[in-house]
Amino acid sequence: MNLQQLWHFYFRIPLLYRLFLTVIILMFLFGVLIHFVEPESFPTIFDGVWWAFVTGSTVGYGDYVPLSTIGRMMAILLILAGGGLVTFYMATVSAKTVNLEHDFSKGKVKYNGKAHIIFVGWNERTKQLLHQVQERHSEQSIVLIDQTLGSIPDQDYNIHFIRGDATEDETLRKANIKEANCVVITSDPSKNEREADQQSILTTVAIRGNNPNVTIITEILTKDQTINATRAGADSVIRSNDFMSTLFYHELFRDEPVEPFDLILELFSNQQFKEVELPKHLEGKTFLDTSDYLVASEQILVGIRRNGELIINPPFQKIIAAEDTLIVLSKLD
């Protein structure tokens, strides 16, 4: 590599690293020179380098002092050149730190971790889910992708925020989609149901294209779009409208009068989803019969898992098989 190539290589280095390298070279150069100029005052090269750093940074311990005229002239040059350079370097480091913190809060910094969960969309469902995950799995890393937020939503949440459109590859790369374990796609409350479902399906396609192995859970609002979400690559499709309708149905026909809306408001703070084995006497019964039986024990039947497939809110007349597992909503243990 000739001098010109070396010079071009030097200026291709990021500014912060270039300044640091320049400070090191300059201090080492002055340290070597002062050692040869005044070997009695600076017995070793390390002593000279130490003096150069102390003097150039304007700390000035005074343990090593040049006594000759040439040595003192070198000290003056070091203070003028090295002091300014060190000050500029420290100011640059401070500015970089502030800019990095600003970019992080604005969702511009790439996430470099692994085995994380990605939430797409910021809404009340995301807030509740985030609270539950961090309360029970505090060690789990979470990345939030949203294009409507101007900055990180809440400093109390231990999340990495990425601002952008989750249908774009660049945004997904910033979220390190290839190393993610799971992605949860929630519906956009600002859109009508059909537009929200189309957006969720398009997001599912983009994510599946970037990571064929990641688990994708997609929220769909309209029943006729469920099959399209599955075709797009969703491993699980949550039909939230159907779930809420089922909840209203069960509360309307409870024996004891209750306030349905009060129960709904309390639902996510006092209850949990879990899988339970099907009782023997319910084998061959309908989904409605099984649901009515569970209501008596204050459990809401949400769906079933059959041969590894999650079926949320199947038709009421669907027959429950012996190998099925029940997905219920019950009080916290």
From TrEMBL:
Presence of keyword Transmembrane helix: yes
Keyword Secreted part of the UniProt annotation: no
Localisation per UniProt entry: Cell membrane
Record InterPro entries: K_chnl_dom, NAD(P)-bd_dom_sf, RCK_C_sf, RCK_N, Trk_Ktr_HKT_K-transport
Gene Ontology CC entries for this record: plasma membrane
Keywords (A to Z) from UniProt: Ion channel, Ion transport, Membrane, Transmembrane, Transmembrane helix, Transport
Protein name in UniProt: Potassium channel family protein
Phylogenetic classification of the source organism: Bacteria, Bacillati, Bacillota, Bacilli, Bacillales
